[in-house]
Amino acid sequence: MKQSQTLIPTLREIPTDADIKSHQLLLRAGFIRQTASGVYSFLPLGKRVLRKVEEIVREEMDNAGANEMLMPALQPSELWMETGRWNTFGPELMRLHDRHNREFALGATHEEVITSLIRDEVKSYKKLPLMLYQIQTKFRDEKRPRFGLLRGREFIMKDAYSFHDSYESLDTGYKKMYQAYTKIFKRCGLNFRAVIADSGAMGGKDTHEFMVLSEVGEDTIAYSDTSDYAANIEMAPVVSTYTKENEPLKELEKIATPNQKTMQEVADYLNHSLSKGLKALMFKVDEQLVLVVTRGDHEVNDIKLKNLYDASVVELATEEETRTVIGAGFGSLGPIGVNEEIEVVADHAVEFVANVSCGANDNGYHYVNVNPERDFKISKYADLRFIQEGDSSPDGNGTILFAKGIEVGHVFKLGDFYADKMGAKYLDDNGKAKTMVMGSYGIGVSRTLAAIVEQYHDENGITWPSDVAPFQVHLLAINSKKEEQRLLADDIYQTLKSAGIEVLYDDRKERAGVKFTDSDLIGIPYRITVGKRAEEGYVEFKTRVGGEQSDLHQSDILEKVNKLLGK
Length: 567
Ligand code: 9G3
Known about the structure:
- With 567 residues, the chain is α+β, with helices and mostly antiparallel strands.
- It contains 14 helices and 31 strands.
- Strands 3, 7, 8, 9, 10, 11, 12, 21 and 24 form a nine-stranded mixed beta sheet that branches. Strands 16-14-15-17-20 form a five-stranded mixed beta sheet. A five-stranded mixed beta sheet has the order 28-27-29-30-31, with helices on both faces.
- A hairpin with a 5-residue loop joins β30 (538-543) and β31 (549-553).
- The radius of gyration is 30 Å and the shape is globular.
- It starts with 20 loop residues before the first helix and ends with a helix.
- The model has no long low-confidence stretch (mean pLDDT 95).
- Bound molecules: ligand 9G3.
- Ligand 9G3 is lined by residues 89, 92-93, 108-109, 111, 140, 159, 202, 410, 412, 440-442.
């Protein structure tokens, strides 16, 4: 491709509304442009990288036995009504009416569409297992699109769906996908972890997220410093390594603690550490009021609370709802003297405390020397807190550390949730109708592109790994007014192209400085500069990363490039 004939609008300045490196650099290097909030155009360089990432995904999906297809973005609302998801998803699901006033969703994901297709077309166990995938534009009306391609409202996803006649078969398919994902993200050059995740609003149970380690990631990963254990912080279980504090039980006492609201204020006022206080929060678990008690230095994990009750909605109760049933506000809640209609649950750590403080359920008062079982009853102890750095790793190896991650992939064992709701059945080998079992597997393709830039850039611009770079060689003719330079550059361009090397040829009538700055921004792995020594047939060869530079005779270029590209 010749730069004088394409569209690569590079920018010198950092765009003001771009907060992270990948967003800044993809704009400055002319790979993308914003069309609306969270909606982007991929310019030629961006499209070439997108295609490289998609090709890697296709190869590994095909190797894993999946078959590519393409489903529509326009999805009839009736399908989403069959699973009940038309109503459970709010404004994030983009909806529209057609000319006959029929309702449609713009596809945010395709479980309903694919399941309705399979229930009509697959009737026998002989056709299972079946693994289908597509690479397609998805729409999700994010409340706060940000960080460029990392959280858009229209984005490219590879979504795959597998259909099985048993959970054993699903396990096999899931493992194949898990391994394919590992290959894909390795080939993209990414430093990632597969983390145990929570299935969230989906059916099924087992699920893993593939997280690219990055400071700008929105998810927090809890990982072991000595093993490969890694889990999404929402899911990471806390192993109960507590020991009963063996101090003698002191006399329970109620103390005035005027205007002391937060745990820290109370701990300071009563002159004890956070871990010698109890925190109580009132939650609405599917409309049922539950008081959740944790140690003062721990945080309630609402996902674990939701999973404990297998609830669909878990949220904090309002101060009014709390005051109505407890008679006190948020800063004074505790497990002592709570009326029966409210269930009181606690994190495992609470069982092992002694002589701690807690709210007296009376504004402005706390109890001290509080002891479980003597002073309050807990209906259920459970793992209800977020894991913390320094906790022991749930696999028994090492200690937990935190890292930020960008979710680029997510694999789910869906179970029979969708097949059951939509009647996707097959006849087993006894002719008996059975409900299918499913898996679903997503990769954020456009998000992966941005994640690569987050991990591959320096102060001058993007440094693409060669397997996903938009081109393999950047050829610069410094002064195309000079006949000998233009002729040599044209010659090299043709030689490389006919050898199947992907070359971006900067043949523009621009100053040298502009060409070098743009070349560093765009980040193609190898650069050939035709300049002053063109008459002798010499060019300058430079690698983008490491900046290794050498003069090379025209006759040695092809061999050097082929060797570097491992051809
Ligand atoms: C929606 C909207 C947003 C959503 C969903 C539905 C996430 C939704 C979960 C999945 C699960 C898997 C197949 C590919 C891999 C991920 N956000 N999810 O179902 F209507 Cl607005 O998408 N689907």
